[in-house]
Amino acid sequence: MNIELEFCGAAGEVTGSLYVIRFDDHTILLECGLIQGGHKAEERNGDPFPFAVEDIDAVVLSHAHIDHSGRIPLLVRRGYTGPIFAQHATRALCEIMLPDSGYLNEKDAEWENKRRAKNGKALVEPLYTKEDAENCLSQFESTKYEQAFEVVPGLTVQFHDAGHILGSAIVELKFSTGGDTRTLVFSGDLGYRDAPVMNSPYRVKHADTVLMESTYGDRMHRPFDETIKELMEVFEAARANQGNILIPAFTVGRTQDLLYLMAEHYDEWRLDKWRVFLDSPMAIEATDTYAKYRHLYGAKLFGPDSHLLNLPNFHTTRTTEESMMINEIRSGAIIIAGSGMMSGGRIHHHLKNNIGNPAAHLVVVGYQAQGTLGRRIVDGTKEIKLWGGLYPVRASVHTVGGLSAHGDQRDLIDWYGAFENRPPLYLVHGEHDAQQALTRELKAKLGAPVSIAEPHQVITI
After folding, report:
1. N or C: at which end does the chain have fewer Cβ atoms within 10 angstroms?
2. 383-397, pLDDT tens digit by residue?
3. How does residue 208 score in pLDDT terms, banded at 50, 70 and 90?
4. Structural domain of 174
5. Dihedral through CA 175, CA 177, CA 182, CA 188, nearest 10?
6. Which of 366, 388, 403 finishes a domain?
């Protein structure tokens, strides 16, 4: 049996997940994600794929986050006509997130072309359009957790709950020829202990090769009760300062965690003094999807037999006009808006109106990739540039790491430790320092045969 795997994305970096599996005469893509992290990095999204699109037999997707799914519309635009396998809730979220990604691509191209037209430069095409994204959705085939399905003859796949976001999956791939069977397990993105909404990640017992994410391989999340205390302190400080609170949150996962925590701690955090705005049409749709699929996690995010959040003073702002009205509020507003890395979206408007106010508070609750505006703010920049204007950073900036949707170093080690046969392990989806630190700990604590995946490295399963 000949099984090869090539690391074509998220090898030595966090975003752009893309792995190519070649099995007998078949070629399967595991993930097809968007590269994120600043203009230079994102330009690579338009490069030719490192494989012939017509050779791809199937795509297997672990979850809906754009750094895992965001180049699927481009793949289809370039000629892919086969199936895209995903968990039911992942498909539902992709129906929201991929068209939105296409719309943002169109807007980015529109802004760039205005600039180019003034300078007499050639115009650009969007990476893909909203229509392209909508067209790819008909190729999705979805299934339940723990339900094995055949991808190509000789390859069956099973999804297990990864506990990262709604529908996120650990992907177990079993290759069989004659009496020989080999198993590849891909962690996808793993959730963490004490997650407010999601379940703990499923523990797989056996594999011949494992791919594991390593986003937070060099750090430990603070105890969750400390995170709860820190959030309460932020609310108290902002209330005393009489300013607004801005929370740039990822549309899927982080937003629902925050809403759940606000509902759970409504009295303790004195949220009756605040108006909570979810200022993101996509996050609003995603939250509705969380309501539809709440049987997957069982959290009390919604009332009994209701799709309404257990959160008073909660407002959703779908339209641009509703969003603009928030700008008139100078105090007492908690504004949750995308994007999570502050690389675009409505959070830019709220930064423009609040970042220079010493009474305002900016709460960063997720990973900020190199090259993003969020990373520059977290690293202490004194001013930011928005639409050609410079704005001083005078608001208080808080980084609340305990709300990450990714497991920390201990979670990752514990998850791999469940494999009884200590299979060869390849680290993906992480920056250099995180992967080096995790490698040292895996070897020291478990004697793990661990390697760091290199771009375009080919391994045999």
Report:
1. N
2. 999 988 999 999 999
3. very high
4. 3-219+405-460
5. -10
6. 403
